[in-house]
Specification:
The protein is an all-alpha fold and 312 residues long. It is 59% helix and 1% strand. The protein is globular, with a radius of gyration of 21 Å. The termini are far apart. About 2% of the residues have low confidence.
Length: 312
């Protein structure tokens, strides 16, 4: 009896790759870059104000799409996903650094930890007590939503860059690589601004800052101090423009539980199992971003020193 023939290995055909690509994300990328280019060129000649709005929203959306890319979307190739969001539209955050810090943040057991969670806004109470009064006032102002919008982008960018420069100075090659790869990504955007764009540099600078401010709305209360790790991550049942700009990341506990799930599937997952997710996050829920603005525009939601850490 002849031995069975082994199946021949073949490369995936086009139709197989076609099925694996997440087309809604590619469409969103097209809208993002299309809006950014139009805002920088044709729309600027019609109305600079409208162009600035368009570029601001496109820049914020690009950050959300970068978040999708680092989580493995819209293809199975990390390199191709990174290339899709290669231009540094938000200027201050290298993609590789965003990826490394965000993936570290996805360890739920360390969420809100002032040292181990790279995205925590809490401070060690012992360090907080050593700050000068003016420093404490600045950080307290930053803990209101208005402060997060006005000074949050500057404070966050300065702190992030200084921390990375210290890491590079101590020999961290991974951090250095992230910034080296950022140079051509930023150079591409600066070339566009000097050679093609019609929008003035001062207007573009405002757009970048405004986009970073919009992103601060998303991160303002994504996580809270809670003694149970699963109770630290929020659900915001918003269905407006901010939910769209954040690619449904307002349903944040769903994203943390299913980090490889694409953005367009999160709402269906949440509303099909709403009780399960709210039970898991101990009812950490807001009805909309407008509700958050009403509550916290001028008053802080949380103290700056971590409320569950002892003062030493």
């Amino acid at each position: 009896m002849a031995p069975p023939k082994l199946a021949k290995h073949r490369r995936p055909r086009w139709r197989d790759w076609h099925r694996q690509v997440e087309w809604p994300t590619l469409v969103m990328l097209g809208l993002c870059y299309g809006g950014w280019v139009w805002g920088m060129t044709g729309l600027t000649e019609i109305s600079l104000l409208l162009a600035m709005v368009c570029v601001t929203l496109s820049t914020a959306l690009h950050s959300s799409l970068s978040h999708e890319a680092l989580h493995g979307h819209p293809t199975s190739s990390p390199v191709f996903n990174a290339l899709l969001v290669f231009p540094a539209l938000s200027v201050t955050v290298p993609y590789l650094r965003f990826k490394d810090t965000h993936m570290a943040h996805h360890r739920d057991s360390i969420l809100t930890d002032p040292y181990d969670d790279p995205e925590s806004n809490y401070w060690d109470p012992a360090v907080w007590g050593q700050l000068a009064p003016w420093q404490q006032r600045v950080l307290q102002a930053n803990n209101t939503l208005a402060g997060r919008l006005l000074i949050g982008p500057a404070l966050g960018s300065i702190a992030f860059i200084l921390q990375d420069m210290r890491a590079i100075a101590t020999g961290d090659r991974r951090v250095l690589l992230g910034w080296l790869l950022h140079i051509p990504a930023l150079a591409l955007v600066l070339w566009w601004m000097s050679a093609v764009a019609l929008m003035p540099l001062w207007a573009w600078s405002i757009c970048v800052y405004a986009a970073l401010a919009i992103l601060k709305i998303r991160t303002f209360l994504e996580h809270r101090a809670h003694d149970i790790a699963s109770g630290r991550t929020v659900i915001i049942e918003d269905k407006g423009i901010l939910s769209w700009l954040f690619l449904n990341n307002n349903l944040h506990v769903v994203h943390h539980m299913h980090a490889t799930m694409p953005w367009y599937r999160l709402p269906q997952m949440y509303y099909a199992n709403k009780d399960r997710y709210l039970s898991r996050n101990k009812g950490y829920l807001y009805s909309s971003y407008s509700d958050i603005f009403r509550r916290y525009l001028l008053r802080p939601k949380d103290p700056v020193p971590h409320p569950l850490w002892p003062f030493r």
